[in-house]
Write a structure and sequence with these properties.
Elements: H1 6-14, E1 32-38, H2 42-55, E2 60-63, E3 79-80, H3 89-107, E4 118-122, H4 125-140, E5 146-149, H5 150-156, E6 172-176, E7 180-181, H6 184-197, E8 201-203, E9 208-214, E10 217-223, E11 226-235, H7 241-247, E12 255-267, E13 275-280, E14 283-289, E15 294-305, H8 313-326, E16 335-346, E17 352-355, E18 361-365, H9 371-388
Parallel strand pairs: 1-2, 1-11, 2-8, 4-13, 11-18
Antiparallel strand pairs: 3-7, 4-6, 5-6, 9-10, 10-11, 12-15, 12-16, 13-14, 14-15, 17-18
Helix pairs in contact: 2-6, 2-9, 3-9
Bound molecules: flavin-adenine dinucleotide.
The site of flavin-adenine dinucleotide (FAD) has 38 residues, from α2, β12 and α9.
Length: 422
């Protein structure tokens, strides 16, 4: 496979772009694999890549019911940050951010990671104190964080609504400079290409429709392309986790599936250099500007459970209200597109990377609305779990039994409920 480089771009430019290799193969499924990963989103792809790269596994398949990046991987607003407070989360997300910092080189694929700063607006002294506690803790654990006063914020982000008469006047911001955005498709394609180079079979249009279990083990999965046996099987199907879990006869999970919608505007001249987050009094809104100029933004979950990957008008209104209250200059901008993905919301807002009641079945789920930034570390630790059959210390409490032990890793105290504190 050609290595991507300035030279290969130059050479292919001179030779009519006819000599590029396919980015990944399109293999027929084999009868049996050492490891089967169900779900070809970012978490499944990253897991297969690190299984091959870090653990030398050779006989791996990813089974994807649609096409790569057709799920949440290709539907999210691409915010990457590691501003987490709680033990377990902060080490995990900081490791993920470090992996992001080297990802383009590691994968030999430009994932367009842009560290442009993540700015959470503050609206009260209480919120500022809470943020100072959280960002000081992050700094003590090797991450970066700053608290900005109003003068600094106005200089860096001049277009916000700074009126003291607004309903929630801005008093400052909590900032992580190393945070930013990346290009979601490129991350999926980069992991797919790198995993394929290490021998992983990526099988698209292959839906798992059933499973066979014997003596406490899952022996095979039924798919629309036949039965495939696996020595170890990992589920990484995001919003569809409860469905495959029930196929495996394992009952109910502490997960609810909700929709999350996102929006992009017509392209504008450069307006916003950072990711800005506005969340107070029931409002939840985040925005950045894409490299093509579109304003990319989103708000809260839909207020009911659903598997529908479609937008709806109440959320358009809710998000438009937030947008114009914080960035009034957006009022006359036209919306270009609007879509939705399905979130697997866990009861404490924290994911699961863990073993399951079946000996050789592993679970990667519960990513809520934050799984894009987590995907490198998620793949890293899930691969480690599958290869070594024991959780790394950073995911020791990311299991299904933490609720029984009374050990919630509850960063926001909102669980699956949108606007709980609004
Ligand atoms: C609108 C929106 C905005 C978001 N914004 C952010 C953000 O800014 N930052 C952030 O960190 N996160 C964000 N997220 C969350 C993030 O996108 C998800 O948490 C993450 O992508 C989930 O992991 P994944 O990529 O593996 O999921 P997916 O891409 O959904 O992958 C799961 C795959 O499993 C496949 N599958 C399902 N069932 C089966 C089956 N039976 N057989 C075979 N395959 C199956 C699906 O087709 C899918 O491709 C956002 C999500 C949405 C929807």
């Amino acid at each position: 496979m050609t290595r991507y480089s300035a030279w290969s771009v130059f050479w292919n430019g001179l030779t009519g772009q006819k000599n590029w290799d396919r980015a990944w193969r399109d293999p027929e499924p084999k009868k049996e694999y050492d490891v089967i990963i169900v779900g070809g989103g970012l978490h499944g792809l990253a897991t297969a890549y690190y299984l091959a790269k870090n653990h030398g596994q050779k006989n791996i398949a990813i089974l994807e019911k649609g096409w790569l990046g057709g799920g949440n991987a290709g539907r999210n607003t691409t915010i990457v940050r590691s501003n987490y407070f709680m033990k377990g989360n902060r080490e995990f997300y900081e490791h993920s951010l470090k992996l992001w910092e080297g990802l383009s080189h590691d994968l030999n694929y430009n994932v367009m990671f842009s560290q442009r700063a993540h700015i959470s607006l503050l609206h009260s002294p209480g919120a500022r104190d809470g943020a100072a506690r959280r960002y000081n803790t992050m700094r003590l654990h090797g991450s970066d964080g700053e608290i900005w006063g109003l003068d600094k914020l106005k200089k860096e982000v001049p277009h916000l609504n700074y009126s003291p008469n607004s309903r929630f006047p801005i008093i400052g911001a909590a900032v992580q400079r190393r945070a930013g955005t990346a290009r979601h498709d490129a991350v999926a394609w980069g992991y797919a290409r790198a995993a394929d180079q290490l021998g992983v079979d990526i099988i698209q249009q292959c839906e798992v429709t059933g499973t066979t279990t014997k003596n406490g083990k899952m022996v095979s999965v039924e798919t629309n392309r036949g039965t495939i046996k696996g020595k170890k099987i990992g589920f990484a199907v995001a919003g569809n986790t409860s469905r495959v879990w029930q196929m495996a006869g394992l009952g109910k999970l502490p997960i609810e599936t909700h929709k999350l919608q996102a929006f992009v505007s017509e392209p504008l001249k450069p307006l916003l250099d950072q990711v800005v987050v506005f969340g107070v009094g029931g409002a939840h809104f985040y925005i950045s500007q894409s490299d093509k100029g579109g304003m990319v933004f989103g708000g809260d979950l839909d207020w009911y459970k659903s598997y529908a990957q479609r937008g709806n008008l109440p959320i358009v209104q809710d998000v438009a209200e937030c947008a114009t209250s914080i960035l009034p200059c957006l009022g006359r901008v036209r919306l270009l597109r609007h879509w939705s993905g399905v979130m697997d919301m866990s009861m404490d807002g924290t994911p699961f990377i863990c073993k399951t009641p079946l000996d050789n079945l592993y679970l990667n789920a519960g990513w809520n609305y934050g799984g894009f930034k987590a995907s490198p570390a998620s793949g890293w630790y899930f691969a480690d779990l599958i290869a070594n059959d024991r959780p790394h210390e950073h995911i020791a409490n990311h299991d299904l039994k933490r609720f029984e032990r009374g050990y919630n890793i509850d960063e926001r105290g909102a669980g699956p409920d949108p606007k709980l504190h609004g």
